[in-house]
Design a protein that fits this description.
Helix content: over 70%
CATH architecture of the largest domain: Up-down Bundle
Oligomer: single chain
Structural class: mainly alpha
CATH topology of the largest domain: Growth Hormone, Chain: A
Low-confidence stretches: 378-384
Number of strands: 0
Mean pLDDT: 88
Distance between the termini: 33 Å
Number of domains: 2
CATH class of the largest domain: Mainly Alpha
């Protein structure tokens, strides 16, 4: 999964940048229709899963309708708040604070409902009963923030400070995206061989902290090779955590709970991505307003500073001196603060990792689930 994510994450910015650079930005969305259609066809043809022999009305009764409603409403409220914050409305605006607070309270209400009311909970509270599992979910969350934030904002450095176009900035990000995949594969093999997950995860967090701190030393005149190397350090660390954080979540629970645990794990990772982009935008916004020349900012009346950042980038290469160097310096300094903030978030991940205990890894799977063809093949082998 991490290997596929790395390949997609590396090629996506280049494809998207190429389309945007040529003015075909609508195809950033249309292109996904073909991808999703192809994947749906592959799933329909090749993914033959076991199906429980339960009547449809019984299946419908086992859906946690109220729990689904609470979690969808809560996360939607938070997404709306984070999408508006600093872009359409200030962070202090009631239009941001009200949905954000209601969404967070809704998440706590969701956990309470799952624990004490729901007969068929989406997230059984037993998944969160051990400190090792809690540590795994927390590390997954912090790693998701760092991963998405760097992936999203690293191209801004190359475009604003190195005069790179959207496509070239995607290529410049290969140091990050194409180290995550091999690192995740190596980490999974090591964990399988040594049956230990804590030590690789500590190693991964240290690499992320060091890599982000080194990114925080880059200025507008730093060499590209330095940035590539620092990206690689972060990528190796994130690739390690990306795959290793499954184990503290799954090891403490019985295998029959793996489905619910992985569903919640994926939710936490996707939820973190919203915060990653928002944190990056907020830091960049606050720093740019302090660092960009005031006379230059007056050219963008009424706009938020996050919007200003993306409006300015295409024009930087054509700005007169010394204004061009001043703007490049402002972007580099703003991003330095962001990378240091991410080093701090990675530090929280390292602290959370200290809560883990060692649990033996499972050596079996839940035979009630899986692909139909696997069982058929196994039965044929046994019969032979």
């Amino acid at each position: 999964m991490a290997l596929a994510f790395g390949i997609g994450g590396g090629s996506g910015p280049v494809i998207g940048g190429s389309l945007a650079e040529r003015g075909h930005w609508r195809w950033l969305f249309y292109f996904n229709l073909f991808i999703c259609g192809l994947v749906a066809a592959l799933l329909a043809v090749f993914l033959c899963l076991k199906k429980p022999n339960t009547p449809l009305h019984e299946k419908l009764k086992q859906i946690d309708w109220i729990g689904n409603l609470i979690i969808v409403a809560s996360t939607t409220s938070i997404v709306i708040a984070l999408s508006w914050a600093g872009i359409q409305f200030p962070w202090s605006s009631a239009k941001v604070l009200v949905p954000l607070i209601l969404g967070i309270l809704g998440l706590f209400g969701f956990l309470a409902y799952e624990a004490f009311v729901s007969e068929f909970p989406i997230v059984p509270i037993s998944l969160l009963a051990s400190r090792t599992a809690l540590s795994g979910y927390a590390q997954n969350y912090f790693n998701g923030i760092v991963l998405v934030c760097i992936s999203y904002w690293i191209s801004v450095y190359f475009q604003a400070c190195k005069d790179a176009g959207p496509t070239a900035a995607g290529v410049d990000s290969f140091g990050l995206s194409y180290t995550i995949s091999p690192a995740s594969v190596v980490a999974s093999v090591i964990i399988q061989r040594i049956s230990r997950y804590r030590q690789p995860m500590w190693f991964g967090w240290i690499l992320i902290i060091v890599g982000c701190a080194l990114l925080g030393t880059l200025d507008e005149n730093s060499s590209r090779s330095m940035c590539y190397g620092f990206q690689a350090l972060v990528g190796v660390g994130m690739g390690t955590i990306y795959v290793a954080s499954y184990f503290p979540v799954l090891a403490p629970i019985p295998v029959y709970q793996s489905t619910a645990a992985l569903a919640f794990f994926t939710f936490v990772r996707n939820f973190a991505s919203i915060w990653g982009i928002t944190i990056g935008g907020t830091v960049l916004q606050n720093q740019l307003v302090k660092r960009l020349p005031s006379t230059f900012l007056t050219q963008f009346p009424g706009g938020t500073h996050t919007q200003i950042a993306f409006e300015v980038i295409p024009s930087i290469r054509n700005l007169p001196q010394p204004l061009k160097d001043q703007v490049r310096h402002a972007f580099a300094g703003s991003l330095q603060v962001l990378w240091n903030v991410l080093a701090g978030i990675a530090g929280l991940g390292l602290v959370a990792s200290l809560l883990m205990k060692h649990h033996p890894l499972h050596t079996s799977v839940d035979s009630n689930w899986g692909r139909v063809d696997v069982d058929v093949k196994e039965k044929d082998e046994v019969a032979a």
